[in-house]
Amino acid sequence: MHKLYWLRLLRIGVSVFFLILTSLIFLDPAQWIPHWFTSAVVWPQFAPSVLKFTVSVGLAAAGFILFTLLAFLFGRVYCSSVCPVGTLQDIISWLRKRFFKQKPLKYARPQNVLRYVLLALVVISFIFGTSLLVNLLDPYSNFGRIMTNLVRPVFLAGGNGLATILEKNDIFWMPKTTFKAYHLTSLGFATGFLLLIGWMSFVRGRLFCNTICPVGSLLGLFSRFSVFKISLDKVACNSCGHCSKVCKAQCIDVKSKEVDFSRCIACYNCLDACPSYGVLLSLKRDPHLLVSGVINPDQNKNRRTILKAVMLITAFATTRSFAARVTGGEKPTEIPEDKNNYASPPGSYGHDHFNKNCTACHLCISVCPTHVLQPSFLQYGLHGLMQPYMDYHSGFCNFDCTLCSDICPTGAILPILPEKKKLEQIGIAKFIEKNCVVYTDNTDCGACSEHCPTKAVDMVPYKDGLTIPLVDEKICIGCGACEYACPTKPYRAIFVEGNLLHIQAEVPVHDEIVIEETEEDFPF
Amino acid sequence: MKRRDFLVNSVSAGLVTGAAVGFGDVASLAAATLQVQNDWDLVAVRDGEPEVMFDWAIASLGGMSKYVKKGQKVVVKPNIGWDVSPERAGNTNPKLVGRIVKHCLDAGASEVYVFDNTCDAWNLCYKNSGIEKAVKDNGGKIVPGNTESYYKTIQIPKGKSLKEAKVHELILNSDVFINVPVLKHHSSASVTLAMKNLMGIVWDRRYWHRNDLHQCIADMVTWRKPTLNIIDGYRVMMRNGPRGVSEADVVTMKQLIVSADIVAADAAAALIFGSKPEDIPHIRIAHEMKLGNMQLDKLKINRIKI
C-alpha cells in the first residue's frame, strides 16, 4: 500500500462533506439554516470569492486565496474536494465504473487552446464589465442553478408530502413551501448543464474541468508551478498503465512517463493504483529527472500554446464587439404595467454593480423567505441572464429581512444593515389610478397601503367617503408590497419602477400622537 | 359589576378557601363565588395586563368551559399578519393568545390550534410576533397557513358579493372557533377588528378587495360566526395601520373586549378607538344583515376596571 493512500480517502471524505453541505444550503425549506453557516459553506467557492474580492477586500472574500495558495503547493485541491460539480462528476464516473462495463480511461491530449481561450474570454469579458461568461461557466454557480431549479422543487415536493402525512397525525413540525421559481431559461440552462457534465463525465471523467471550466483552467495554470506534484518514478514505472486507468483527468501519459499536472485534479486515485509504487507525490524536482537531466520538451510547447491563446483573445477583444453587444437592449416591452426597469435586491447598489458581480448561483433565490427573488430572463438584458430580480408578482421584499445580502457569495449583494436597508430605495411605486378598484368600482380596497411598511402609499380622501392611494415617492423604498397586494387583473394598479441606482429614501416623519385625557370609563 | 365588588368577592373567596390568588384561582374562584351572570352579551375590561384582563373577562362570562367542552378541538385565530415585534401592536398580543390557549386546555380541549394566513413571510411573522412561542409554551399547536393546500372551498349561500371562499381546514375541522383580533387603525377600513380578522382564514384575499371589500367582510360572517370574539386593545395602533411604521404609532390603552356577538364586539372596539360603529361600512352592513347588534345600548354589558 502506498504510504500516502490515505490522501485519496481524505479527498473523498472532504468532497462528499462539501457536496452535502453545499446541497443543503440550497434546499432549506424555511430558513432553518443560519446565514453565517451558509456563508461559511460558500466561502471556499472559487469564482464567487474572486468576484467578492473585487468589490470588498477582506477575510470574507479570501476563500480563493486559500485555494490559490493550495494550488501552488499541492495543485488543484479545490477541484478535487470543494467544487460541487467536480464531486458530482466523480459520482457519475464512479457509477459508470460500477455499473457499466466500458473501456477504462486512458491518457488524452490536453485541449489547451480551448481551455485557455475560454479562460481568457471569461477574464476579459469580466474586465469589460460583464459577468455573463462567469455566470455561464463557473461550476459552483451552475451547481447552484441545478440545485435551485431542478433539485429544490423535487425536494420541496417531497417535504410537502411528508408534511401532509405528519399533519394528518397532528404534527406540524414540517412546514410546506410553495415553489415559485419555474423559469424556463434557468430550468433549461440547469438541465442542459447537468446533461453536459453528465455526458462528459460518463465518457471522459473530468473532461469538463480540463476543457470548459474557467476555474479549472486558472488553477491549472497555477498548478504548473506546484511545489508538490504527482509524477512517475522513471525507474520504477514500467508503463503498465494502471495509474492511467484510474486517472479521471486523463493526464498521466505512461508511454512518456509524464504527468500533465496542470490537468491533475488532485484526486490521488493513482497513488495506490501503481503495483510498483511508482507514482510519486513529491517536491516538483523529481530526483530521477534531476539525475537524468532530461528536460520536459512539453514544457516549452505548453508555454507556446498559452501565448497563442492569449494573442488570439487580444485580437478578439480589440474588436470590442463582445462587451458592447451584451450590455445593450435593457428595455423589455412585454411588461403589462409599463415597467422600464426591474428592481435589483437591496444591498446591490443598483443594476451596474449587481449585473457585473452576480454569477446567478441562485442561492439568494433559494433562501428568500418571500420568494420575491426570481431568476430573470431578459429583465436586465442579456448580460444579466438568469440573475435574480425582484418579481413583485411572486412576492415582496420583507421589510426587516436582509438574508440575501448576508449570504451572497459574490458580493453582488453586499451585506446591508437592517436599519439602512429599511431606507434603501430600490425602486419607486407608481400608481395607475384608472386601474384602481376605488376608481373603477367605487368601493374601498386599500390593499397596497395595508402592506406598505413605510406608508409611502397612503389612503387619502376620494369621494363618497372612499379613500384612494397616494404615493409619497420620497419615502417609498420600492419593496413591492403594494404591487404584490394589488388585486386588479391582469394589470396591477400600482407597480414598482426599479431604480437603476439605489438611493436613500427619506425617513418617514410623523407627529407625536396626542392622546386625549384618558377617560376613566368606557365609551359605551 | 364594579371593580371593587369583584375584588371584594375575590378576596373574601380567597380567604374562605385559603388559596393564593393566582391565575386559575382567580378564574375558578370568580366563577364559583361571584354572582356569575351567564347572560352578558359583552364584557369590556380595562387597565390590566393582557392575560389578567382575559382572566377576568372569561370568569365573568362563566369560564371557558362554557364555550369549550371536554375533548373538543379548538382553533384560535389571532392576527399574526406582520413581521413585527409585540411592541409595534401589528399583531395580537402574544400574552393574550397564550392565556387563551391555556384556558381552552384547562377547560378540557383535546387540541388547541393557532394559525393565520399572514401578509408578511409566515415563519417570520409567527416567530417575531412572539405568538409561536406563547402558543407552544401554553401547550397549543401553531399551524402554518402558508400554502393553498390547507384551504378548502366552501359555499356562502347568504353572501351578496362573496359566494365562495377557500377556508383553512382547521376552521372546518374544529368544534370551537375563537377569533382574537387586535384593535388597530386600518388604512382602508378605518379600523380592523373581529370581522376583518376573518380575512385571515381564507386563501384569496385579493378577491375581497376587488369585489366590494366591506360587503365581503360581512358576507363571510354569514358563513360561520366565531364562538367567541376577543379583541385585544392592550396596545393600539392609532395610525399607519394595519402594519404600522414605528412604535410611535402605538398607544397603550389596556383594553379588552369579549363577546360572542361579532358585530357588538366590533362596535365596542370601534368606540374605544374613537370611531362611530355606523361609520365603519362593514359593521353597518353586518348590523343591517342582522349578523349581530351594533347598538350597544340594547345589550347587557359587563364593564370591569382592574
In brief:
The complex is a heterodimer of chains A (524) and B (306). Chain A is mainly α.
Low-confidence blocks of residues of chain B: 1-24
Overall pLDDT of chain B, averaged? 89
Distance between the termini of chain B: 11 Å
CATH topology of the largest domain in chain B: Rossmann fold
Number of helices of chain B: 12
Please give the radius of gyration of chain A in angstroms. Answer: 28 Å
- The percent range for strand residues of chain B is 15-25%
Q: Identify the CATH architecture of the largest domain in chain B.
A: 3-Layer(aba) Sandwich
Tally of separate helices of chain A: 22
Number of domains of chain A: 2
Q: Reading side by side through the largest sheet of chain A, how are the strands ordered?
A: 1-4
Radius of gyration of chain B, CA atoms, in whole angstroms: 18 Å
How many separate domains make up the residues of chain B?
A: 2
Please give a structural write-up.
The complex is a heterodimer of chains A (524) and B (306). By secondary structure, chain A is mainly α. Chain A is 44% helix and 9% strand. Chain A has two domains: 293 residues, no CATH class; 167 residues, Alpha-Beta Plaits. Chain A contains 22 helices and ten strands. In chain A, the strands form five sheets. A two-stranded antiparallel ribbon of chain A has the order 1-4. About 6% of the residues of chain A have low confidence. Chain B is α/β, with parallel strands linked by helices. Chain B has two domains: 35 residues, no CATH class; 268 residues, Rossmann fold. In chain B, the strands form two sheets. In chain B, strands 1, 2, 3, 4, 7, 8, 9, 10, 11 and 12 form a ten-stranded mixed beta sheet that branches. Chain B has a two-stranded antiparallel ribbon with strand order 5-6. In chain B, strand 5 and strand 6 form a beta hairpin. In chain B, helix 2 runs parallel beside helix 3 and helix 3 runs parallel beside helix 4. The radius of gyration of chain B is 18 Å and the shape is globular. The N terminus of chain B is likely disordered. Classes of the chains: A mainly alpha (524), B alpha/beta (306). Chains A and B meet through helix 9 and helix 21 of A and helix 5, strand 4, helix 9, helix 10 and helix 11 of B.
